[in-house]
Amino acid sequence: MAQSFNILIVGGGIIGSSIAMALAEQGATGIGVVDCDLSGKWGSSERNAGGVRATWGAAVNIDLSNASILFYQSVAEAVGFQQKGYLWLYDESAWPEAARRMDLQTRLGVTVVPLPQDAIPRRFPFLDRLGGVYKAIFSPNDGLINPNLLKSYYRSKAESSGVQWIDHQAVSSVTVKSDKVQSVELKRIETDEAVAQYLVDENLPDEAEKTTLKTGILVNAAGCWAPRLSALYGQTTPARPLRRQVAIIHGQDIDLSPYGMVVDTTGLYFHHEAGHILSGYAVPSEAPGYCFDDEGEGFFMTEVWPRLSARSSRFDRLKRTGGWAGLYAVSPDKSAIIGAVSGLDNVYEAHSFSGHGVMQSYAAGRGLAELILSGAYQTLDLSVLSGRRFETGHLVSEETDI
Ligand SMILES: Cc1cc2nc3c(=O)[nH]c(=O)nc-3n(C[C@H](O)[C@H](O)[C@H](O)COP(=O)(O)OP(=O)(O)OC[C@H]3O[C@@H](n4cnc5c(N)ncnc54)[C@H](O)[C@@H]3O)c2cc1C
What we know:
The protein is α/β, with parallel strands linked by helices. The protein has helices at residues 14-25, 59-74, 76-79, 95-107, 120-123, 147-160, 192-201, 226-232, 296-309, 357-374, 389-392; strands at 3-10, 31-34, 51-52, 86-90, 113-116, 135-139, 143-144, 164-166, 169-177, 180-188, 210-220, 240-250, 261-263, 269-273, 276-281, 319-330, 337-340, 347-351. α1 links the parallel β1 (3-10) and β2.
């Protein structure tokens, strides 16, 4: 007999885990979370930079981050949340838009401090090369979080409320009848290699052991694989996977531990990471696709080091010690897709966070759980993030995804 759930979440990354916790806290029972790799080796939730900020350009993104930050503050030690701020450097052409966003952020309760160019080295003495920098904005309540600890926190709370976790199983087909998902078919994936293969090219061995799960409600929290999952229930999701690379660097002349995240005029970002420096850069020519190739030293020497050394003499002597590539799930307006899936009575989704899934995970999970259980958002109205916006044209205007 097929196992049965009231609510089945596909994807146990930081978003699926947050939704599971929120559903359980709000009283739901019979919740399952299925993932082909619960360890998240290839998932974005284990491959990100851990930045948390409320300095967004769209009200809903500011609200989602603000509400999440309040929660992270309340469990700061358990999730490694350090409010050491974000420093964002702007050139003259980018400043007017930054100033507009700053007005909105201030109105929505975010603390943002504009800094004229000459004030920057007084607060950040290591920034001794500020050519091309016009002004900066410092947001002291933003900072850095440990994404692995945060995901584990959500999971342990969910588990203690009876949520069941199903590992090494890929959802390979979905049965829909009368506009309702009835069940999903799972195929077992045993090895790391098979998981990696499946996540890159959707290839599952024919002989894989199959199981069927019945469900009352299906939640698509499959991260950058959400479009593949939605195709299984006959829907199109207009998001795409985009590789982002990160370098881990040793710099003997510099200690960034007193500071939070710094974002350069070029889009390069960096912060202290366990005695080293973590730095990332989005190469504008990157083509969408499920690619995990880390270009290593080549990426560091071409994209990272020149931008770092252009900002500080302390970055002249650096050594790359590691790095990785992970996938962003990017929607057309660089904002998450959250809500009920139109055309189906019992399918919900939360994915395509476009580089802000960790920082918004708490309030996103809480909101989706409210919608599923009571039919309406209770704490924050997230209805503008519904996937229907790509049909109606009412997009959320977010310009950056760093
Ligand atoms: C380099 C980089 C830096 C980033 N920096 C930041 C940052 O500073 N701050 C921030 O907030 N965000 C950042 N992000 C984005 C953040 O990591 C993501 O938004 C977030 O992790 C998304 O979580 P998720 O749960 O949706 O996806 P994931 O963690 O990818 O989880 C999706 C899960 O679904 C599973 N899955 C998919 N399809 C199936 C299927 N058919 N069957 C079973 N399981 C399936 C996968 O195995 C995976 O575990 C960054 C991302 C990258 C790559």
